[in-house]
Amino acid sequence: MGLTRLNNQALPADFAFGTTELDVWQPNGDITVTGSGVVDITSLIRYPSLWEKVGTGMTESSGVFTFPSTGKWKLTFQVSIAANGGARNYMGGIIRLSSNSGSSYTNYAQGYNGAHSGGAYGYPHINVYVDVTDVSTFRAKFAYNTDAEANIHALSGEMNTAMIFEKIAST
């Protein structure tokens, strides 16, 4: 492997001097949660305000994301969620991953907050690092999970609830 030097430190030749892939998505509007349990978010849009993806960008269909290239990726899911109608034991989000073309998904990372009363906000921030080795079979999707009614905030132009994809290195 060829090496490059930065501040007299050896780095792999394929080290990215700057981000080569970065994409941001959000739900297509606020979500009113009317029950409890895990629910995939299926109506999404690319983040619309003062933003343009870097690189090819993610491909999305009905909430399922495919990757444009192999490599080491950082996925972030930030969820702006508020209890609706009373205290909540838990409310939050899940990053779900598949390496078999979406035949099955694993809840790879989860983040939760509780709420002491109705209207109280939680803002879980979930990160996961993953090595995408095959773009034809690797998938990601995002879900919310609550124990009762809640509101997920996704106002257009505000990065309240967002899914962020960043390629941080080659495989």
CATH architecture: Sandwich
The amount of beta strand, in percent, is over 45%
- Would you report the number of β strands? 17
Helix residue percentage: under 10%
Ranges with pLDDT <50 over ≥5 residues? 1-8
Number of domains: 1
Largest sheet: 6 strands, antiparallel
Here the CATH topology equals: Jelly Rolls
> What structural class do the secondary elements suggest?
mainly beta
Distance between the termini: 13 Å
CATH class: Mainly Beta
- Number of distinct helices: 0
Radius of gyration, in Å, reads 18 Å
What order do the SSEs take from the amino end to the carboxyl end, as H and E?
Answer: EEEEEEEEEEEEEEEEE
Q: Give the overall pLDDT as a whole number.
A: 86
Task: Give a description of the structure.
The protein is globular, with a radius of gyration of 18 Å. The chain has strands spanning 3-6, 9-12, 22-27, 31-33, 37-40, 44-46, 59-61, 64-66, 71-78, 81-83, 88-98, 106-115, 121-122, 125-132, 139-146, 150-152, 162-169. The strands form four sheets. Strands 5, 7, 8, 11, 12 and 15 form a six-stranded antiparallel β-sheet that branches. Strands 6-3-17-9-14 form a five-stranded antiparallel β-sheet, with no helix packed on it. It has a single domain (19-169), classed as Jelly Rolls. It is mainly beta and 171 residues long.
